[in-house]
Structure formats: C-alpha cells, structure tokens
Amino acid sequence: MKLSAAVAMYVTYKRSVGMRFNTEARTLKSFCRALGDIPMTEVRPDEVLAYLAGTGPVTSFWERKHGAISGFYRFAIARGYATRSPLPSHVPKPPLAFVPYIYTRAELRRLLDVASSIDHPRTRIDPQVLRTLLLLLYGAALRISEALSLTMADLDLEQSVLYIRESKFYNTRLVPMGPDLAKALGQFIANRNRRYSCRPESPVFPCRDGSPITVRVAENAFRRVRNRAGVFRHDGARYQPRLHDLRHTAVVHRLIAWYRSGADVQRLLPQLATYLGHVHIAGTQRYLTLTPELLREASLRFERFAMEASHA
C-alpha cells in the first residue's frame, strides 16, 4: 500500500469517530510530500528522522509531528499496512512548556489606544475594526478564530449575546456580554454599518475591502500594534506576546477577581469552562497556576480558610 493511501484511510477513520483532526491531517500530508508517494515498505527511518528534525531546534512542533506519525503507524501496524514503526527510538527532551503572556491592565489600555490610532498603509484593517476586535477578544475571552468567524447574524445586541458556532470542538455556545462590552460593540456596529455590508452573512470584522479578516492578517496587524505600544516579553520566552494571549489574560483576570471577592472559585469553574467552550474542565483548571498573582490570591484564600478553621 502507498503511503498517501494509508494516511488517507487513517484520517478518514479518525474523523469517522468524531475528531476534527485537521492539524494532524496537515502534518501527515506534509509527511507524505516530504517522503514521496512511496510504498509503506520503503519508508526508511533516516527519512522519518530528517522530516522530524526539520531545519531548526527541537520545538513543540517536533513533538506534534512525532505524535501524529506515531498514531498513524499504530493504526497501520494494527491493520497490516506496515510491520514496524520507522520512528526513532530516542525522543529528544521536549522544550519547556509554553507559558502564555498575561497582559497587565496598563498594557491592555496601551494596546487599545494604539490600535485605534495606528493606520499603517500595509494594514488591511481599519483602526476601529482592529480596536474592537482586540476589545472583544479580551472582554468575551474568545478564540481569535471564533471572533473572526462572527457574522452579523451571530449578534444579538438587544440581549447582549454572541452566538459562537462550530468552535474548536464543534461546539456551538452562547456568550453573554457585560454592559460595558455590549455598549462598546453596539457603538462599533452602528459605525460599521455605515461603511460595510449589513447582510446576515457578512463578517462582523471585515477588512477594508469588506472581505473576512484571516487569522494571519489579524496577527500581522496585532504585531505592529504590540510593537508600537512597547509590549514585549523579557523572560527569555521564544515567542513575544500573542493575539491569543488576550483570551488567557481575560480568564486569569476573572479568576483573580473571583478570589478577591471571596467567590467559590471551584464551584464557578464548570461555568467558566462552559463560557470558554472547553470540553473538559481540566482545560480551565490549568489557568489556576498560570501567574504568580493568581497563585498569591489562592494562597491568601487558603490562609484565611486555615485561620478561620483554627479559631472555630
């Protein structure tokens, strides 16, 4: 059996059991291109190692490639398409776990101020569109793909609700907005509708020519805003603050506020997971250890609890 045929069968199988499998499918397609459409029996370990190694240092992408190919070969061996795995027996030490950047409130204000004023000739996004996009990513803790997929039909400004359709895990959910965010979005829409199409299928956040904004265009525009605002990492991390970190920041700020107000955070976590569109609560719980400030608030909560228990 040819490599591409076996990969196609594997991807079809994974999707038949309910997995989206887009990232892994792209990785395996790249694997087929690198090795050529050769019989499964002719795949050599040195070719696989060369594909995994790439041209740069070992990163989390090495792990993702290794995981995708490893899963494919387990499938292939179980069905007799291959007799052994050509993957290297030695797996290099993975890089340090990536830690999202949590913006301070002062940094958020600078980003929003710059976004509303920067009008670079190469930027395909109107400044007010970009500013409102950043505001919504933080205010509603959306994924960038979710915000860019919003159409006019997905807005219910009377009820202050966003309809997030077919998100990362095929979920559709309602995202309520606070009064300040709903007011800002309503003002933006009123101005937006004077320039761009109001049809139900039109994107809420269009490029200057009315076409939907892509993730790459948004990330490039944000990079210019971040540089102009002077927001940088100084902790030796490989990546500078990202657009997606606005979502992480929103969650951390909410958790800190809950701790400071005396709220029952553990009881509220399932509600937060639903709001964020997480399939498992573990995806939300990881935020509890994300920043020193959050850990400090949790520690103070525990100390107050311990003191009250000792005097009971």
Structure description:
- It comes from Paraburkholderia tagetis.
- The protein has helices at residues 3-16, 22-35, 45-53, 60-78, 105-117, 127-139, 144-149, 179-192, 215-229, 245-261, 265-276, 282-285, 292-310; strands spanning 155-156, 161-164, 173-176.
- It folds into 3 domains: 3-78, Orthogonal Bundle (DNA polymerase, domain 1); 106-229, Intergrase catalytic core (hpI Integrase, Chain A), CATH 1.10.443.10; 245-310, no CATH class.
- It is globular, with a radius of gyration of 23 Å.
- It is mainly alpha-helical.
- Helix 1 packs antiparallel against helix 2 (22-35) and helix 10 (245-261) packs parallel to helix 13 (292-310).
- The longest helix has 19 residues, at 60-78.
- It has a 3-stranded antiparallel beta sheet with strand order 1-2-3.
Return Rg in Å.
23 Å
Helix content range of the residues, please? 40-55%
Q: Which fold does the CATH topology of the largest domain refer to?
A: hpI Integrase, Chain A
Q: Main beta sheet, described?
A: 3 strands, antiparallel
CATH superfamily of the largest domain: Intergrase catalytic core
What value does the average pLDDT take?
Answer: 87
Q: What percent strand? A: under 5%
Distance between the termini: 72 Å
Q: Tell me, what is the CATH class of the largest domain?
A: Mainly Alpha
Oligomer: single chain
> What is the number of beta strands?
3
For the largest beta sheet, what order do the strands appear in spatially? 1-2-3
Total of domains? 3
State the order of secondary-structure elements, H for helix, E for strand. HHHHHHHEEEHHHHHH
Inertia-based shape: globular
Unreliable segments (pLDDT under 50, ≥5 consecutive)?
none
Count every helix, treating DSSP H or I runs of 4 or more residues as helices. Answer: 13
Proper CATH architecture of the largest domain: Orthogonal Bundle
Protein name: Tyrosine-type recombinase/integrase
Keywords: DNA integration, DNA recombination, DNA-binding
Family: Belongs to the 'phage' integrase family.
GO molecular function: DNA binding
